[in-house]
Write a structure and sequence with these properties.
Layout: H1 28-31, E1 35-36, E2 39-40, E3 43-49, E4 59-65, H2 74-79, E5 92-98, E6 106-115, E7 118-124, E8 126-130, E9 136-142, E10 148-154
Antiparallel strand pairs: 1-2, 3-4, 4-10, 5-8, 5-10, 6-7, 6-9
């Protein structure tokens, strides 16, 4: 935390010592520090914010997604089927941004994303507003060739409340 009167409201260190909510168990296998199966991990949380980090704060997180080699083994693909469908009692902003500074609108990947029973496939940077109670996901990333920056937030006290 930063020093000063408002220092307790500023996070300057990665918050990596949190327990994921049970509905986010799928992340455990791909979150670890360092290498995963000889390859760079698929994702890394930069920032996690909720009431556990700063009392009274709302939920937000920032994540890097790293390109991965194509999965040849179909059984391996089922181990990480993407973010499963879920809802929140609060609205959420979900965004993914490309990291090519010459073409920041390009994701250099396809992100498959579902809202209720509608499937969307994005290959451009995007922000999606998800009203409270609307089922969203699965979310799957395909053919990523460059890192992708992800930011999401919602006015709940934590991910699921």
């Amino acid at each position: 935390m930063a020093e000063g009167k408002y220092g307790p409201y500023i996070v300057t260190e990665l918050y990596t010592k949190f327990d994921l909510p049970p509905e986010r168990e799928w992340e455990r296998a791909i979150m670890g520090r360092g290498m995963l199966d000889g390859q760079r991990r698929r994702m890394e949380h930069l920032v996690w914010m909720d009431t556990r980090v700063i009392p009274g704060a709302f939920y937000a997180e920032a994540v890097w997604f790293w390109p991965q080699p194509q999965i040849i083994d179909p059984e391996a693909a089922t181990k990480h089927p993407g973010i499963p469908p879920h809802t929140h009692p609060f609205p959420e902003l979900l965004s993914y941004y490309g990291t090519d500074m010459e073409h920041p609108e390009e994701l250099y990947a396809e992100i498959e994303f579902w809202l209720e029973d509608e499937k969307y496939v994005f290959d451009k940077s995007f922000v999606c507003y998800i009203p409270a109670g609307v089922k969203h996901c699965p979310l799957k990333m395909h053919n990523a060739t460059r890192p992708i920056f992800h930011y999401t937030m919602g006015p709940g006290q934590n991910y699921n409340a």
